[in-house]
Amino acid sequence: MPVEKRSFLFRYFDKIVCAVIAIGLILVVVSAVKRNRGDETRNLIARIEQASGQVENQAHRAAPEEPVEDYLKLRAERNVVEAPGRVVDLTPHPAKTYEPVWLGTEQTEVLSFTEPLVPGTTVEVIGPAAEDVLKILEFPVDGDYTKVRVQTTKVEGRVELRAQTQRSRVVRAVWVKKGMNAQAYPPIELKALAIREGVALSFKPNPQNVEHVAVSVHQIWRQDPHDAAAGFTLLAEVPARPSETAWAGAGATAPVPSPGAPIPSPFGEGGWNMSGLPPAEGTGTSVSAEGANEPYKILDQGVKPDGVYVYKIRSMPQQYYQKPSEFTDKTQVETLPNIDFRYVRGQPLRGGRARLTFEVAKYTGNEIRTVSFQNRVGDMIGGVDYDETGRPVYYLTGCYLVDCHYYVRPEKGGTLGRITYMDRRGRLRMRYKNEVAAPDLWEQLQ
Question: Based on the number of CB atoms within 10 Å of its own CB, is 123 exposed (0-12), middle (13-18) or buried (19 or more)?
């Protein structure tokens, strides 16, 4: 059969159709992609423009005011310390009993424990009519859990304080009675007078002690202020009169017996002295007590001539559960010298220092002797004399003559001589003609 010749289109028609279809699909896809991207871009631009407008509006708009919280109020509310409730501990603990305490009526006292009490624990007062006898004022005391402040009333009685520590229960008995733990009142009208034999002291018992405290003894303390290393020392104790020991609250009705023997007294009959020892020759202390309302009179013979001494006194209670009194105000006294002088006469001299005449009196314990000496300015007043056996007797006063004025008009009128001298303590003093410091020496010579 003869071969029929065909055209190019006829031979590749199917392939051409497939290619056209593929190109159409590609164009459709490309067109769709372009259209979608355009919409997204437009949407994105629109959102950006909208956000920019909101930012501009917000910038021109005032910020809203917000309330400021009260932080101090919030802190106070969050740090409120509530009163702790009662702690109930069902665990058995051993009990520790403290020494009893003796308190007077209508008294405020702080009781101390060796261990701190448990925070939040209740300090209980146990006993008949306990609340009428003792009240708890404060626990803890200034943040100290070892202390409890209590107050007694006018009612007397015995109660117990009960509380809890970390390791044990504590029990403490409290006696309340009038006069318990009371403090004595100091003596009154203390006086000190220098005499030839020593220092005469006198004082009166305080009448307020009759209603509060039974006094056992009065302590006398002495100090030499020129001795820098020595303070006050106990000179002696004067037993109180029966009228001072007859306080009604110190009778047999006291709720507790004395824990020890009575206070030992070192005093014998006829007087007393320091430590109960017999005084040495020329020294010692003696006392004279007359009626109940009369002052005590004491003679201190243990002082040195021409010295300075300070005295103070306090009263000691008879009951051990009461307090000693405060000391009286200090009283200072200068003891009399054993040697004294007086300016007798003197006249100015030309071309030299004048000689002044002095009389010196010296007390030797059994007699008083006087001797005249002549001294110049700059000399120690006095001199040396000799007795019947030729032995020297010193009449040196320790005072130095500094100056002399022969005609001075004193306040009383007239004219007198007057000297200026330095005494034994380095003090400048003045003395008129015939003036003395220890009149008793001269009175016995007349």
Answer: middle
Residue with tokens 């009208």: 189
3-state DSSP assignment of residue 389: coil
Tokens coding 57: 């509006």
> In order of start, what are the domains of the chain with their CATH numbers?
95-176 (2.60.40), 188-250+267-334 (2.60.40.10), 339-443 (no CATH)
Contact present, 410 and 416 (Cβ < 8 Å): yes
CA distance 361 to 343: 12
Report the alpha-carbon distance of residue 258 to residue 317 in Å, rounded.
13
| Both structure tokens of 89 | 């501990």
SS3 22: helix
State how far the alpha carbon of 68 is from the alpha carbons of 205, 251, 361, in Å. 73, 73, 97
Q: Each residue of 254-297: pLDDT tens digit?
A: 333 333 333 333 233 333 333 333 333 334 555 554 556 688 88
- Main-chain phi, psi angles of 284, to 5 degrees: 120, -175
Cβ atoms of 357 and 372 closer than 8 Å? yes
- Nearest residue to 179 via CA among 209, 149, 158, 151: 209
Distance of CA 220 to the CA centre of its chain: 24
Q: Look at residue 311 in the predicted model and tell me its pLDDT.
A: 93
Integer Cα distance of 219 and 210 in angstroms: 18
* pTM of this prediction exceeds 0.90: no
Contact present, 377 and 404 (Cβ < 8 Å): yes
Buried b (16+ CB within 10 A) or exposed e, 39-55: eeeeeeeeeeeeeeeee
